[in-house]
Write a structure and sequence with these properties.
Length: 424
């Protein structure tokens, strides 16, 4: 099996089904020797902030001298990004070899039990197998959707769980209230294991998370929001002061300060499990973290910002950064899925954007450029459609205004990033 055949095979698998407690995946993991049972985990759930928390946590642990698996969802740069060890993507030949093994067992499981593996189940099992094969000291594991019923939650134990910011997303799967959604996210908390919670959590979500933790006798850690100080120290730069530590932010925005406090507390919890992580490791690890498409400044002159925030809460974080840095008059490239409240998002962006280009996304839930443009025209005078993000960027660069913003989806950011890097 070649690398491309492996990726095509993974993407050809069904994406969703009603839960059956991951019967096919559990059978696959048995055939693979249950690699997840040999690994130690930091498990991360939440609506927004999972990726940033995962990247910072993995980098702190790497800085402390550990061999760290990092499993992210979705990818931005390329598919192999989903499976990282100490910042290095899985070699393509190893991905192909493991996928071929999984394909063999999928056919066996289908023949024996009539069960089909989902795409994300294969991705997660592949990650477990790879990290175990490479003898990782610890794995930072990012949830796909929800938590309780997520494929990643087949693990029996995690040393610490992180519950990030909770807002409305995937309501058709997770529930229609923040409490219902929080219950699903908190499903990753393990008995007698610490759980760290994002500090400015909505009260109904916070109460639900705390109850789940209490029911499982899990120590509950909530950073004190009054002890968190964020100072804007320059254009798109800020400093966090918390827990006696002063940290130059790897990512800009107050929400990233809150994300970082979760990482700080999670790393402190790992010390009780024998991990030697100094305060200096925490500071350096967070400061040196790189993660694409999280309000990423691709260029300062001209100003080019790339952001994968895809829902109202994610866009609110982006708006706060634009406001803090007095950025208006932008030319923007935007795409959206239909279930992400696109009209509300585009209305929120009106003070910051002068010219808008709408572009397509792949998938059944994606709105067309024309649908997005029709939605945006009541709010903007200058709205255009484009056949691709690349062509929209090319046109936008001819008329930049104060700068270029590409936003609306991590999938859009993945397509845009390489093209943008080639332009600057």
């Amino acid at each position: 099996m070649t690398y491309q055949q492996a990726v095509d095979y993974i993407h050809s698998r069904p994406r969703f089904k009603n839960t059956d407690n991951h019967k096919a995946m559990r059978k696959l993991l048995e055939y693979l020797g249950n690699p997840q049972d040999n690994l130690k985990f930091v498990h991360i759930a939440g609506t927004n902030g999972k990726g940033s928390c995962a990247a910072m946590s993995a980098n702190v642990l790497k800085t402390a001298g550990y061999k760290v698996g990092l499993n992210v969802s979705p990818f931005v740069v390329e598919f192999t990004e989903r499976f990282q060890i100490n910042g290095e993507y899985i070699p393509k030949d190893k991905l192909a070899t493991i996928t071929e093994k999984i394909k063999y067992y999928q056919e066996k499981i289908l023949e024996e039990d009539g069960l089909q593996l989902l795409e994300f189940e294969i991705v997660t099992a592949l990650a477990f197998y790879y990290y175990n094969m490479e003898n990782c000291d610890i794995v930072v594991l990012e949830v796909g959707i929800g938590g309780l019923l997520d494929s990643t939650n087949v693990i029996k134990d995690s040393l610490v769980s992180c519950i990030m910011n909770i807002s409305f997303d995937h309501t058709n799967i997770l529930g229609n209230t923040l409490s219902e959604i929080a219950y699903q996210k908190a499903g990753i908390i393990k008995p007698n294991r610490p759980a760290v919670c994002y500090p400015p959590q909505e009260i109904s979500a916070l109460e639900t998370i705390k109850k789940v933790a209490d029911d499982k006798n899990a120590p509950f850690i909530l950073p004190d929001i009054n002890d968190i100080k964020t100072t804007v120290t320059g254009f798109m730069q800020s400093t966090l002061e918390y827990d006696g530590k002063k940290i130059t932010q790897a990512f800009t925005g107050k929400h990233q300060s809150y994300n970082a406090t979760v990482v700080i507390e999670a790393m402190k919890q790992l010390r009780q499990f024998g991990f030697e992580i100094s305060d200096d490791d925490i500071i350096k690890g967070i400061e040196n973290t790189k993660f694409p498409a999280r309000i990423e400044v691709i260029s300062r002159n001209p100003l080019i910002i790339l952001d994968g925030g895809h829902n109202v809460d994610g866009v609110t974080a982006l708006l706060n950064v634009l406001k803090e840095n007095n950025i208006t008059g932008l030319t923007a490239v935007w795409a959206s899925l239909s279930d992400k409240e696109p009209e509300k998002i585009i209305e929120m962006m009106t003070p910051y954007i002068d010219t808008l280009y709408t572009v397509p996304l792949f998938g059944a839930r994606a709105l067309t450029p024309r649908q997005l443009a029709d939605m945006a025209r009541p709010y903007f005078k200058d709205v255009h459609t484009a056949d691709s993000v690349e062509s929209a960027i090319d046109m936008a660069m001819e008329n930049l205004g104060s700068g270029l913003l590409v936003f609306g989806s991590l999938y859009l950011a993945a397509d845009a990033r390489n093209h943008l890097l080639n332009k600057v």
